[in-house]
Here is the input.
Amino acid sequence: MERLPFLQMCRWKCGWACRTETANPSQAPTLEQVLQEAFTRREFLRGILGAAIVLGVPEWFRRAAEASGGTGVPFIPVGLSRDDRVAVPSGYLTRVVVRWGDPLFRDAPPFNPERLQPEAQATQFGYNCDFVSFLPLGRRGGDRGLLWVNHEYTNPELMFPGYPAGRPTREMVDVEIAAHGGSVVEVRAGSDGNWVYVRESRFNRRVTGETLCLMTGPAAGHEWTRTQEDPSGVRVRGTLNNCAGGVTPWGTVLTCEENFHQYFGNAGQLPADDPRRRVHARYGIPGGASERRWELHHPRFDVGREPNEPFRFGWVVEVDPYDPTFVPRKRTALGRFKHEGATVVVTRERRVVVYSGDDERFEYIYKFVSSKTFRPGDRAHNLTLLDEGTLYVARFYPDGTGEWLPLTFGNGPLTPANGFRSQADVLLNTRGAADLLGATRMDRPEDIEAHPVTGTVYAVCTNNDRRTLAQVDPANPRAVNRHGHILEIFEAGGDHAATRFRWQIFLLCGNPADPDTYFAGYPKERVSPISCPDNIVFDRVGNLWIATDGQPAALGYNDGLYVVPVSGSHRGRVWQFLSGPLGCEICGPEFTPDFRTLFVAVQHPGEGGTWERPLSRWPDGAVPPRPSVVAVRHREGREVGS
Ligand code: FEO
Ligand code: CA
Ligand code: CA
Ligand code: CA
Here is the structure.
């Protein structure tokens, strides 16, 4: 089979962020610095991995997990595949629940791929479903709920016949804007266990690139967030490139703006001495025309005409899926960068901690710690928690320790001498502030999750083919890291608000035959090949599920979903549970509260092809392929993976 034409993927997925360098002036620790610690790379790895005995999960949990059989994972792994279908282990069933274009309201028109229209798209399920969260409705919560689904980006070459690259029509652009954002859609399982979406649910909602959002927190209303259209600097049109996200304990969803730079063009038209120009460059905003050319039809995407619009994107956005009238809030206290996700943990003192990776090569891992505490049942109070607190960025030391550095105005170099006059300035240029603090440059930080029992934090780095040997450091230990890795972070005292931590490598992904791979010490001949880990979730027994994004390029096979025990005698045994159709990545993943259904989002099936030369015809055997959410369950109703 031919290798896929991957160039097209980067164009829309990340707006070439994977191929260009943003102006990140900070320096990774060099290999020489690592060597000064008297470790060679291999010896160092052995050193920290040996320390796993000390740093690992508590023995009581290990025993409990063993006793429950929870790390057994009794299914026969599916193999790597180049088939145009969703493959799962024997005994499991899949069902497509909702597809791009499915009408979400009574008066929404049916999907007509020959004639897409913006007004119709704004009432239909959006494109490129990414993050999925299941919010239960009713008592049992296992057979009825709301899905919040992110619609990260559009593939116009798959959406429109004869897409004229560089010259999209106004209508095409408006369809694309309407296909971005997110959806709330009610889903129910019938008595046969089959999930369907409820077209006429009063909860159904589309949030698009045009939906009114409010900026809140320290940067709201800053002079750099004011535009000709919005002199207040708080009322933003829409949310864009919503990649992954998180759920709060007060029942809202966090949806994260990731590669927002790609929607803007012409930043090079700003005067050379305009300080905004340097910040836009640090975030990768194109100096000339954008690939998408939305600026041809909407001046707000033309930085030469509207220099501040990009400052209104790159945030974590809070939405209440239970309230269709809720105005989404861009929570500026959590920082502005290419947020992959936003994972919420509540500390023993009931502070709210949000972990978030900045998904670009050599970018950073962050966490936010709220000033105020979570009050169960006090919704109005809880909706203020993400507006006030401390944002930190991670520095990993070679000795297996680490530090959270506060991105607080006045701390160290974060002063007017370096262009920071307020906390709002720090947040608007979070990347620049983190550079000055000397944060550790990572291999594309993606999803982050805390283990539900041990609290150990799992941070995914998807890949970084640009890291040179001189840039290798112990937390990013491979040059030309094509396959990615996963770190374990142990917060000091088990407190997610701590400013110190210890860390170790959990997985170095790839083909297990490759000597550069590592699976927590598990015998490599018994693990599945895995590459480009992206989104993760824990199941009831504490096994980690890993969805991948990039295996076609890295391994030559379709992306998939894997499960790996993180404790017990099978710790590190990566087994493939699902393989997606051609050209897709697998997103979600999300369990129902009873763990009997697993939802996955099949994003960009057929990417690499075009309308005229389709690579995939999933899910309906037709053109165009349709990004869709799929439910997976066991034929006998068992917990998935149990
Ligand atoms: Fe949108 Fe980092 O994946
Ligand atoms: Ca992702
Ligand atoms: Ca996750
Ligand atoms: Ca992805």
Summary: The CA atoms of residues 97 and 252 lie 22 Å apart. Residues 152, 243, 258, 340, 359, 446, 534 surround MU-OXO-diiron (ligand 1) (CB under 6 Å). The domain at 6-258+314-634 is CATH 2.120.10.30 (Neuraminidase).
